[in-house]
Design goal:
7% strand, 6 strands, alpha/beta, elongated
């Protein structure tokens, strides 16, 4: 009876996990996706609780309570901090997989009531689980630190001669030791070799991330998501838990797909992301030193917008940081009320993660019909009267088209520079994540509005609402 309940729970949870991923495709059904995912995890935990081989249920209760104590505060973060919070979740998942794998090895080594035989297949899964789990743990912590701009973790790439050989060597030694331990799991030196594998995996996680710049961290996080899923698959094989295998496979594959989407959006490959040191500040002639930034007043910007027949709004990370989506909606209402065509151009990786900005726009109740993907809007940009750039930087930098020395060279961008007039809202003259100046901001047809996006947009809305424009 208990086995039948566990199998039924596994089927139900798996179905809910699949529906959760499917519903994430659309912001309208995203809330259903979250509910389905949480419900699936609850079903999985309850099903595990009633399995006869589980002992010490009191400790499990304490672990669940501890998870709530840590998890609830972690959930209370702004959307702009979701990438690093996601990295922390991957770190916890990787640590759990690594610790379970280590415990299962030593339980099997000692035999006894709770130790399972260390067969070749089981040992192979254990080694994979431990390597993937612990490298995900330290790698995710490093990624979160770079995104959070922790002082002792440099956001810029940290490189040195022969770095890739060192990284590959550390991983190769860990894998070679894993093969030896798999073939001879119970010899006198095997426990020490196993702990060396653990140490090398932890070290490799750090070495893997330090040469990657902060601009690439969102892509790296999705790759680490894949690793965490694969470690869960291995853990499922070790524990004989089919649901873990299924959930881990879904996690791993979705992380891989997300990584592919982000790499395509930046016109980069996995190897380029992992070994290219993207984000290194290049010694290039700064365009900003040759031309002056031209600043516009709010009143002048409002007049330019009112005289336009078509406006393309290009939101970016700055809009997300300022939580200015509702002010954007108010400006959208004021412009459309005047018969001005307004379109939102969303770059695939603007705002650090795919669909981050789509979620914010949806939160402000702006219809999907007003949104346009990058490939859809670019052919229309030469006919655009005003391109309003709100806190976007690298994703509208014309240098990506031709500056071969630039770290963003080859990355597809939104062609804001081709609009008749560009209004750019920016907090300061500091560069974006790629660490380079934006040539768009010093073009002859570009005017800057410096300040917090929410405050600047609020002032623009007041200009329209005051009736002072004619």
């Amino acid at each position: 009876m208990t086995l039948a309940v566990a199998q039924l729970a596994a089927i139900v949870a798996t179905a809910l996990f699949i529906f959760s991923l499917h519903w994430m495709n659309d912001p309208k059904t995203a809330r259903h996706a979250v509910v389905a995912g949480v419900t699936a995890m609850l079903v999985a935990v309850l099903a595990t609780w009633f399995q006869p081989e589980i002992v010490h249920h009191g400790w499990i209760v304490l672990a669940i309570v501890g998870g709530f104590v840590v998890g609830v505060p972690l959930s209370l973060v702004p959307l702009t901090a979701v990438p690093q919070r996601t990295a922390l979740s991957h770190a916890f998942g990787g640590l759990a997989a690594g610790l379970v794998g280590t415990a299962e090895y030593f339980l099997g080594l000692g035999g006894g009531q709770h130790g399972a035989p260390l067969t070749t297949f089981r040992m192979s899964a254990l080694v994979a689980e431990v390597i993937l789990g612990f490298l995900t743990f330290t790698g995710s912590l490093m990624a979160a630190g770079k995104l959070q701009e922790v002082k002792w973790i440099p956001q810029r790439p940290v490189t040195y001669p022969g770095q890739n050989f060192v990284n590959i060597g550390v991983l190769a030694i860990a894998v070679a030791l894993g093969v030896l331990v798999t073939l001879q799991p119970a010899t006198a030196w095997s426990p020490q070799a196993f702990m060396v594998i653990v140490g090398l995996a932890l070290l490799f996680g750090v070495l893997l991330i330090i040469p990657i710049g902060g601009a690439d961290m969102p892509t790296v996080i999705s790759i680490l998501n894949s690793y965490a899923g694969l470690s869960a698959v291995a853990m499922g094989f070790v524990l004989g838990n089919k649901l873990l295998v299924t959930a881990g496979a879904l996690d791993g594959s979705s992380g891989l797909i997300l990584s592919i989407i982000m790499c395509r959006a930046m016109n980069r490959s996995f190897t380029n992301v992992l070994f290219g040191a993207f984000g290194t500040v290049q010694k290039m002639a700064a365009v900003g030193e040759q031309k002056a930034w031209k600043q516009e007043t709010v009143e002048g910007a409002a007049q330019l917008l009112e005289q336009a027949s078509s406006v393309v709004i290009i939101p970016g990370y700055g809009m997300a940081v300022a939580q200015a989506q509702h002010k954007v909606r108010e400006l959208y209402d004021q412009l459309t009320k005047r018969g001005i065509k307004v379109t939102f151009a969303i770059h695939p990786v603007a705002g650090r993660m795919p669909v981050d900005l789509n979620v914010l726009i949806a939160e402000a109740n702006i219809t999907d019909t007003a949104l346009a993907e990058m490939d859809e809007i670019n052919p229309e940009m030469p006919q655009c009267d005003v391109a309003l750039v709100i806190g976007a930087n690298d994703v509208v930098n014309p240098a990506a088209r031709y500056a071969k020395g630039s770290p963003i060279y080859g990355m597809p961008i939104i062609d804001a520079d081709k609009a008749r007039t560009v209004l750019a809202i920016k907090r300061s003259k500091s560069p974006g994540f790629a660490g380079i100046d934006n040539e768009l901001y010093v073009q002859d047809n570009t005017w800057m509005l410096f300040g917090d996006a929410k405050a600047v947009l609020g002032d623009l809305v007041k200009q329209f609402g005051s009736g002072g424009l004619h």
